[in-house]
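S.,

Sequence below, as promised.
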Amino acid sequence: MPLPAGYRWRAAGEIESREESFGGIGAAVIVAVFGILAILVLEFRRFRTTLVVASVIPLGVVGGVLALWAAGYTLSFTAMIGFVALVGIEIKTSILLVDFTDQLRREGVPLDEAIQRAGEIRFVPIVLTAITAIGGLLPARLVTPVLYKLLATETVDDEVATFMADPVPA
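The prediction came back faster than expected:
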């Protein structure tokens, strides 16, 4: 249907609000990712180790998006704040494992054995981190206001899924 002269179509309502909320988030995400990588390179002094630690970021984001989708929510600014928390928790867990594996490797332990021992020894701290995150955000996940649910949904659901998927050390 042609519009009269001087009129045009434009997105409004929820679409307009979403564009306003996410206006500059792309640049902020890129800066944040490079900032995280820079800090990890400074900590580990090796780019390969940094990539191993940072490899959890895409997995966490996919898990968070799937959790939002399964709960019937859309990606919003509040959910993005939850993603920041999720990525922080997952990087902390990854640092615990990789750092201890590197420490064992410096002591002369073979790679496969170092990975297995790091998983066994760091299992309890990782589980406690996951339980703390779940316990802290579960009330927000269960309350009625959608604002709080969005903040906690992907973090809690992804932590629960990760916790259930991690193999228990023998």
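The chain is about 80% helix and 0% strand.

Coffee later?
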